[in-house]
From TrEMBL:
Lineage of source species: Eukaryota, Metazoa, Spiralia, Lophotrochozoa, Mollusca
Protein name as annotated: Protein-S-isoprenylcysteine O-methyltransferase
Reaction(s) catalysed by this chain's protein: [protein]-C-terminal S-[(2E,6E)-farnesyl]-L-cysteine + S-adenosyl-L-methionine = [protein]-C-terminal S-[(2E,6E)-farnesyl]-L-cysteine methyl ester + S-adenosyl-L-homocysteine
Main localization, broad class: endoplasmic reticulum
Top EC class for this record: transferase
One family name in Pfam for this protein: ICMT
Organism, scientific name: Pomacea canaliculata
Domain of life: Eukaryota
InterPro entries reported for this sequence: ICMT_MeTrfase, PPMT_MeTrfase
Function: Catalyzes the post-translational methylation of isoprenylated C-terminal cysteine residues.
Cellular component terms per the entry's GO annotation: endoplasmic reticulum membrane
Membrane topology of this protein: Multi-pass membrane protein
Keywords: Endoplasmic reticulum, Membrane, Methyltransferase, S-adenosyl-L-methionine, Transferase, Transmembrane, Transmembrane helix
């Protein structure tokens, strides 16, 4: 059983490594769709690093799902839609995909979101989990330092801007809007659900933290205790 799991980790890591290498080759190839290479590079690194940082910061929660490759059917459809829009628009109007300055802005936004998410994982340590926790563990504590002093949910902020940044980078106007709307709705619901449990876990401490620190995502307030 352990060998099977290790083999699956090796296969997934290896495939992500190949995608990363292919992305780098495309990025420096000089072809008119080189920005798709940027996309391959950042998305493969994102999934590999989710597993790696979980393994180093909270190994107790480490599973194959920590790669987030099987995050949801909606996520898989979003990736397919992103690639489809890119190549359809590149085929019909290739000049549209060569507005380099916008792609660079998207790349910087993507890298910034990725960095913020990983810093959040390291800062939270064993208190970070890919799934909303409905039971408080004895070593689960409220983290309010570092990036958590700026936002209540910095990992979600990072992921949100990472996802939108990838579509700006690809110059995908339809998916850019779609990703922003769907991601916002997802995190709005998730934060509301998560904060109900956090208030139950930490009571007045979390209530005070909530009052002083924004969620970090536009127009998302989270769960509020009725006055």
């Amino acid at each position: 059983m352990a060998f099977t799991r290790l083999a699956q980790v090796v296969v997934r890591s290896g495939n992500l490594g190949l995608a990363f290498a292919a992305g780098l080759l495309l990025s420096f190839s000089g072809v008119s769709w080189a920005t798709f290479g940027w996309y391959l590079t950042v998305i493969s690194f994102f999934h590999w690093s989710e597993y790696f940082f979980t393994a180093t910061t909270n190994p107790r929660s480490l599973t194959l799902e920590s790669f987030l490759l099987d995050h949801s059917r909606e996520y898989e459809l979003a990736v397919v839609a992103s690639c489809t829009e890119y190549f359809l628009e590149w085929f019909i109007y290739p000049e549209m995909k060569q507005i380099t300055i916008l792609s660079v802005v998207g790349l910087l936004l993507t890298l910034g979101g990725e960095a913020l998410r990983k810093i959040s994982m390291v800062t939270a340590g064993i208190s970070f989990n890919h799934y909303v926790q409905r039971t408080k563990h004895s070593d689960h504590h409220l983290v309010t330092s570092g990036v958590y002093s700026l936002f209540r949910h910095p990992s979600y902020v990072g992921w949100f801007w990472w996802s939108v940044g990838t579509q700006i980078m690809l110059l995908n106007p339809l998916c850019m809007v779609g990703y922003a709307v769907v991601s916002w709705r997802f995190f709005n619901e998730r934060i509301y659900d998560e904060e109900r449990h956090l208030l139950n876990f930490f009571g007045e401490d979390y209530l005070n933290y909530q009052r002083l620190t924004p969620t970090g995502l536009p127009f998302i307030k989270g769960f509020r205790v009725p006055l």
